[in-house]
Amino acid sequence: MSITLQVEVPQDGTIALSWEKDRRVRAHTLLVVRTGMVPAFNAWHLGGKTNRFVLQNLSRHQRYRVALIAANGEASAISPWFEVTPRLGVAPRCDGEAADIVECVSRIQNVTVMPQDQRMTVYWKRSAGFADKVVLDIFAGDRLLRQLDIEPEVSSISLDAQRGIDLENGTVHSVRLHTKFSGVLHNTTDKTFCITAAQGEERAANATMAGKNLVYPTLSVMPELCFFDDDEEDTLPTQPLSIVCGTCGSHVEWQNYQLVCRNCGAQFIPNGRGDFLDMSRLRFGTCSCCLPKKIIVQRLGSETLACAHSGKEHIRASGSAGYWLIEDLPFGLCQCCRPRRPLVKVDERICCSKSNERHTHEDGTWVLVPSDPVFDASAIDDLLDQGLAEICSTGVSRASAATNRRAS
Ligand SMILES: [Zn+2]
Ligand SMILES: [Zn+2]
Ligand SMILES: [Zn+2]
C-alpha cells in the first residue's frame, strides 16, 4: 500500500488536500502540525472513501506541516510531510521522505495518584503532540487488573467499583500510562504505586511508599488562624469546630468522604472558602469526578457545566437527569468539531451531537464520513487570539486551567 498526497493553496488561508482512492483503505488520518514557538498538533480520522479535505481560515503567516496515513487494519502507509504556508504564490514543499511521526507523539507527564477507600484517582498532564487515546494500565501487585482507553482530552480518572474496578484496601496498586497513536502504544511512563485504604487512614497506609506523586483527600473544618495584633482575644476555640446541620441543628459527620447530618440526612459540601453548602439547594448539583464531591458551575457566557474543582465538563444526558463525563461517553468524541463534541446514536447511526456529521467505526477508532470535507479553522484561531484556548494534541481547543478557575 502506498499513498500520494496532493497539497494546494487555492486562496489565502486555505489548504486543499486530495489523494487517490484505494479500495483497500478503510480509514485515513490527516495530520496537521502548526509550527512555531509552541507547535500545535491536529489529527482528523476520516473514512476510507474520503479522498479530499479542505482547511479554511488558517493564518496566512503561519507555516503548517501536513501528512496523511492510510490504513486497512493490517497495514498502513504514510505520505511525506508537506510544508505549507497558506498564502497565494507560496508553493507547498514536500521533503520526499515518509513522515516520521514517532517524535510528534504526545507524552504523559506528572502522574499523580490519590489513594482512597477502595478507590483511587489518577491525574496526569499530556505534552503537545498527537494522541488518539491515553491508555491506562491498572495493576494489583504484578497482576494487570484492567487496561482503559481514555480520550486524550481527559486528564484525570477515578477508578472504583462504579467503573467496574475493584480495588482492595491494603493491596499495593500501581498505574502506568501510554499514549496511543495510529494503533501503536508510545511513551510508556514509569509505574506509580499506592495503597488504597479507608477514609482517614490513606496517609498512614502509604507512609512506606516512595511518597512521590501521591496526594490525599483532606477536609479541614478548623477556622482560619488569626495572627494579627488587632484581632480580638479569645477568638480561637480550643476544641475543633463542629458543624451543625442548617436544617435541623443536629451534628454533622464526616463519613465516606461526605458531610452528612446524623439526624435528617441532609448533605453538605465545603465550598473551599470555609463555608458549607446544602447539596439539595445547588442549582446543578455536585460533580461526579471528585470525592469529596464538589459543586458544578456553569462557565461564564456558555452552557458548559463543569466541576469547580477539577474543571471537568459535565455533559447533559439527553432524556435523563444525569450528566456524562467524557471518560464515560459510550461512543467518545467526534472528529468534526474543535473542541470535539460527544458522539450520540440517532436512528442506528452514530453522529456528532453538535454537527450531526456521521461517523463509522474502523479498527477501534471512530472515523468521520464527511458530507462536506471542509474544516473551518477560524473558531480555533479566535479562541487562541483571545488567549482562551490551548490546542492540545488532537487539535482540541479548550480553556486552560487558569481560565477555568477564573470562570468559576
Ligand atoms: Zn439535619
Ligand atoms: Zn469534581
Ligand atoms: Zn463534531
Describe the 3D structure:
By secondary structure, the protein is mainly beta. Among the domains are: 1-104 and 356-400, Immunoglobulin-like (Sandwich); 108-205, Immunoglobulin-like (Sandwich), CATH 2.60.40. The chain has helices spanning 202-205, 378-385, 401-407; strands at 5-8, 15-19, 27-34, 40-47, 52-56, 64-71, 76-78, 80-84, 93-98, 108-116, 119-126, 133-140, 143-150, 156-159, 172-181, 184-186, 192-195, 252-255, 258-261, 267-270, 276-278, 296-298, 305-307, 315-316, 323-324, 343-346, 349-352, 358-362, 365-368, 374-376, 390-391, 397-398. A hairpin with a 2-residue loop joins β10 (108-116) and β11. The longest helix has 8 residues, at 378-385. The model is unreliable at 391-408 (pLDDT under 50). The structure holds zinc ion (3 copies).
